[in-house]
Write a structure and sequence with these properties.
This protein is of the alpha+beta class and 131 residues long. The chain folds into 2 domains: 51 residues; 67 residues, no CATH class. 44% of the residues lie in helices and 21% in strands. It is built from 3 helices and 4 strands; from the N terminus they run ααββαββ. It has a 4-stranded antiparallel beta sheet with strand order 2-1-3-4, covered by helices on one side. A hairpin with a 5-residue loop joins strand 3 and strand 4. Helix 2 packs antiparallel against helix 3. It is elongated, with a radius of gyration of 21 Å. It starts with 9 loop residues before the first helix and ends with a strand. 11% of the residues are buried.
């Protein structure tokens, strides 16, 4: 992990208050806003840790999914780079639900698609989304 830090101090809160409500907060309002931010931040951090552990467990349980049929391959294509980009395989899952959960967890940019590899050997795109 790098040494990045998130700093939320009175200056940050007051700057945001100017943007949101067009004025600085009183000391009492600023203190209340800070307490509310801390409560929300703790909940947010808990939720994100839980989300990370859930997706890691999903990937782990699908470790050998590519050896069975049917399975679902997730592909990703970067859209923020110059030139023509190719789809790259990101992961393989035993079911569509796990594949979609993986896409939504990771989807902050680019184009994502899920291809079903059926028991009869056919391939079919079953999901695609762009960000």
């Amino acid at each position: 992990m790098n040494d990045s830090k998130i700093i939320i101090d009175e200056d940050v809160i007051q700057d945001q208050a100017k943007c949101c409500i067009g004025r600085k907060l009183t000391s009492e309002e600023c203190e209340e806003a800070f307490d509310t931010i801390l409560e929300g931040l703790a909940e947010f951090v808990y939720y994100k840790i839980d989300e990370v552990m859930d997706i890691r467990e999903t990937v782990k349980k699908n470790k050998n999914a590519g050896k069975t049929l049917p399975h679902y391959k997730v592909y990703y294509k970067k859209t923020y780079l110059e030139g023509e980009q190719q789809f790259e395989e990101e992961a393989v899952f035993k079911n569509r639900g796990d594949a979609r959960r993986f896409v939504h967890y990771n989807s902050f940019s680019g184009i994502w698609k899920i291809i079903l590899f059926a028991k009869n050997g056919s391939e079919r795109e079953v999901y695609k989304i762009s960000y």
